[in-house]
User: Which sequence fits this backbone?
């Protein structure tokens, strides 16, 4: 296995030449010239449609991008990932998040059977535990049922469980309320704990390494709150569980072995919500829906592993990213879900994509000769329309968008669901086709101010977007959607030649935080800019804040 993507640049050169032809063309023109765009530039799996007809591409673009993917041996990389090869080469590990949602009877590499048995056993444990807590058989120290769960974790040990729990929550849920404590900001834990009863609260400490400073600080604070409130140090085991790949450290913290749910070093933190890291999901929305989430992700896995590159959803989504970012030079991408319960999806994708592919060297350590990960950002529609969409429509930077919308109305309020969906479609249309200055002038015809206002009311259009339309937002479809993005990240990593499964860029900040904490207690750190701020921080707090 080669350590970088070995591209010969031939496919890139062909794409650059093609880009020079496509760049001056407007989406209006591309649609006018090819009436079949809507059907040829869309892909569908049962329950999920990807419409990329409003991207600034033609069939030829996709053919050339697919050639680039082939040149980078994308097929080979996909096979190696599913087979459990150590594709996380810096850490010498496999990346087997797909095994976490493997379904019994589906094709599986023989070498992975033992690991799959461990996954199956863990799934059973999650189901049993979640049922016991939700059914009231697992009781707190005073014999009361659990009403609230706190998930203490950060990054991959927080964003996935939080996103999925919010996405799948329903007003008829019978389970406990689930709270998420990630930030080390002391105000957050104070606010949260003020509203909770220790006798009916279950705490899950989630940390792959069990060394993450923020998580351990929050866990200590919550443990202290619990012990002070109950005075019951022997009964901690009724209220604290851990999810980790480092059980010794969890035991050191005081979590009894029976309360430790393990996962494995071949699961990356940001790819881990399918493991016991998803315990909060199973507790919040029920183990059946947690398992449906896994089944949906598995459907996307099969599609990714088995479908030719040009009809493969994650591949096409990844190729569009490479096109927009590397060839059309768009520096950021916005993710706009038109479903309030998907409000945490942009933050989840930010970690998934930016922590995976925000890198500047290839697998072999040599610098990349192209752009890698764009900035990912976003917020829910329609809220964003009344905040930052002005810039998207008329600003000087072009921002490609992923619109995510669920068509099926599960509220019974069809009037507002129509409005929600109409807004999404309107934004995609307005961004793509705009309104020319002539059209604007005509619209303002009778106005004496027509000439003055026309430039301000003109929309350039030609701003690309994809629409991901889900038939309905249920657990299975959410699983498909998240796996789609995971694999899309893998596709772009293969084209950029980088290892998406480590995150060494977060280490320096962590090390310096440790030094600065020591410096705060002593004579500073010997770096003038930091020391000046430490001085000021200490001065302000010595004044009685
Ligand atoms: O600092 C980044 C990171 O390592 C993420 O990759 C990870 O998801 C997060 O911290 C939390 O790590 P852990 O699960 O080990 O506490």
Assistant:
């Amino acid at each position: 296995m080669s350590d970088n993507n070995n591209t010969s640049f031939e496919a890139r050169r062909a794409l650059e030449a093609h880009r020079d032809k496509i760049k001056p063309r407007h989406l209006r023109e591309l649609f006018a010239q090819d009436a079949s765009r809507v059907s040829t530039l869309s892909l569908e799996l049962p329950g999920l449609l990807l419409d990329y007809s409003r991207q600034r591409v033609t069939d030829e673009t996709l053919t050339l991008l697919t050639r680039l993917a082939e040149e980078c041996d994308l097929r080979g990389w996909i096979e190696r990932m599913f087979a459990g090869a150590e594709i996380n080469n810096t850490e010498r590990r496999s990346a087997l998040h797909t095994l976490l949602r493997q379904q019994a009877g589906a094709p599986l590499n023989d070498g992975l059977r033992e690991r799959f048995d461990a996954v199956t056993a863990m799934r059973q444990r999650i189901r049993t535990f979640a049922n016991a807590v939700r059914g009231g058989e697992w009781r707190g120290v005073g014999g009361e049922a659990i009403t609230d769960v706190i998930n203490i974790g950060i990054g991959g040990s927080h964003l996935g469980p939080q996103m999925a729990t919010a996405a799948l929550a329903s007003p008829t849920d019978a389970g406990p309320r689930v709270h998420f404590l990630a930030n080390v900001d002391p105000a957050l834990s104070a606010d949260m704990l003020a509203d909770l009863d220790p006798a009916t609260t279950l705490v899950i400490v989630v940390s792959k390494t069990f060394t993450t400073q923020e998580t351990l600080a929050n866990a200590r604070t919550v443990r202290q709150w619990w012990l002070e409130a109950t005075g019951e140090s022997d009964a901690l085991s009724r209220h604290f569980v851990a999810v980790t790949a480092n059980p010794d450290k969890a035991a050191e913290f005081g979590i009894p072995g029976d309360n430790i749910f393990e996962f494995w070093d071949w699961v990356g933190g940001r790819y881990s919500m399918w493991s016991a890291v998803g315990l909060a999901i199973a507790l919040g929305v029920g183990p059946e829906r947690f398992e449906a989430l896994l089944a949906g992700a598995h459907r996307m896995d099969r599609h990714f592993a088995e479908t030719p590159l040009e009809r493969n959803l994650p591949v096409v989504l990844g190729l569009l990213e490479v096109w927009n970012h590397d060839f059309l030079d768009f520096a950021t991408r916005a993710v706009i879900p038109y479903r309030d319960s998907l409000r945490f999806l942009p933050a989840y994708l930010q970690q998934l994509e930016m922590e995976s592919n925000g890198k500047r060297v290839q697998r072999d350590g040599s610098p990349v000769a192209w752009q890698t990960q764009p900035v990912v950002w976003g917020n829910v529609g329609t809220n964003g329309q009344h905040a930052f969409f002005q810039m998207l429509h008329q600003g000087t930077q072009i921002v490609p968008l992923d619109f995510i919308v669920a068509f099926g109305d599960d509220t019974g309020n069809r009037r507002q669901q129509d409005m929600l969906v109409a807004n999404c479609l309107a934004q995609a249309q307005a961004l793509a086709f705009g309104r020319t200055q002539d059209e604007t002038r005509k619209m303002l015809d009778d106005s004496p101010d027509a000439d003055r206002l026309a430039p301000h009311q003109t929309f350039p259009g030609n701003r690309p977007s994809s629409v991901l339309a889900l038939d309905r937002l249920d657990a299975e479809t959410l699983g498909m959607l998240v796996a789609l993005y995971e694999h899309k990240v893998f596709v772009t990593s293969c084209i950029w030649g980088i290892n998406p499964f480590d995150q060494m860029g977060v280490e320096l900040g962590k090390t310096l935080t440790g030094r600065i904490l020591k410096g705060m207690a002593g004579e500073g750190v010997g770096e003038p800019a930091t020391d000046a701020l430490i001085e000021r921080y200490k001065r302000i707090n010595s004044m009685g804040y």
Remarks:
- The chain has a mean pLDDT of 96.
- The pocket of 6-O-phosphono-beta-D-fructofuranose is lined by residues 154-157, 207-209, 212, 215, 269-270, 355, 503, 506 (CB under 6 Å).
- The chain is about 50% helix and 10% strand.
- The radius of gyration is 25 Å.
